[in-house]
Amino acid sequence: MTRDELEQDNARLRKEVEDLRRENAGLREQLQKVLKEVEEWKRGHRERSKRRSSRAEGRVRPERKRPGQKPGHAGAFRPVPKADRQVVHPLPNRCECGGCVEPNGECESTIVQDIP
Question: DSSP of 103-116, one letter per residue?
Answer without folding.
Answer: --S-----------
